[in-house]
Amino acid sequence: xxxxxxxxxxKLKDRKVLIIGDVMLDHYVIGLVERISPExxxxxxxxxxxxxxxxxxxxxxxxxxxxxxxxxxTGFVGHDGEGQVFEKLCxxxxxxxxxxxxxxxxxxxxxxxxxxxxxxxxxxxxxxVDFADSxxxxxxxxxxxxxxxxNVVILSDxxxxxxxxxxxERFWKLLEKKKHKPHILVDxxxxxxDRYKSVSMLTPNAKEAGEGANMQVKTREDVxxxxxxxxxxxxxxxxxxxxxxxxxxxxxxxxxxxxxPTFARKVFDVTGAGDTVIAALGLGLAAGLDPLTSAVLAxxxxxxxxxxxxxxxxxxxxxxxxxxxxxxxxxxxxxx
Length: 336
Hints:
The protein has helices at 2-8, 57-66, 81-92, 133-146, 165-178, 206-213, 220-234, 273-286, 291-305, 316-325, and strands spanning 16-21, 23-36, 43-56, 70-78, 97-102, 109-115, 118-125, 152-156, 183-187, 201-202, 238-242, 248-253, 256-260, 332-333. It is α/β, with parallel strands linked by helices. The strands form two sheets. The protein has a ten-stranded mixed beta sheet, with helices on both faces. Strands 3-2-6-7 form a four-stranded mixed beta sheet. Strand 11 (238-242) and strand 12 form a beta hairpin. The longest helix is centred in the C-terminal third of the chain and has 15 residues, at 220-234.
């Protein structure tokens, strides 16, 4: 498997993936804590650095670009300074984008205050109601023109209103009319599960899988049962449940489950790891890899980013080094 991964890394270059989803601006305020405020029992952060990164669906695009792929990002921003910053970051990162401005809501922004590599507090600025039909019309005019150019489409659902019921109704009708059958990958929001019926692959973590299956997921048997329930509920082609330090469980079908142990040597920050997983999966499928090889690729990529602070990305060079030098956990069948 390792030699197979090394051989396919060059094939990831310039593979096209379309990302549709909730974009957000990640704002990091970084500093040091040396005293407690005299006004209240809270730490005082002396700011030493401030930075902005592409968040939400934008972070999926960042990960695909870092791996050598060619993402195209589409979604909604506000008519505000944060929206301009987001678009500028896309341009600076070389990420093609089709962003549409909403006049009645802000660009989703998450501000994280960090000190000594620890997150102190997060401040969210957002509205989460469904977007106006006029904005959806702009998005679907773009999809009407462009979607047939993509064999992999990632739907990145952060519950901010883009991937609404009306979106999915229009989306399936569009694909049916075009007779176009791309891989549709979904990073899910639990409350929206019933909207994802018959997608190509769903990528929940264990908690999200348990919520979608109406149960707690703690053991291997729990994972298998949650997966079966999700197949009964949604009927995806494949299902990938990420298990944190336990790796991931790939349901190649309802009754064929492969376990990929974790490749991470250290876990420092899991922020954005789900974005990395679905980005690497999508790019692997776009390069013609089978779901299992794509999952192993995604596991290596996730193992790299959780060893860094913030929403990090993995490069092809880092992946190659990890494949060569990290221990080689064996993929095994879980449901025999």
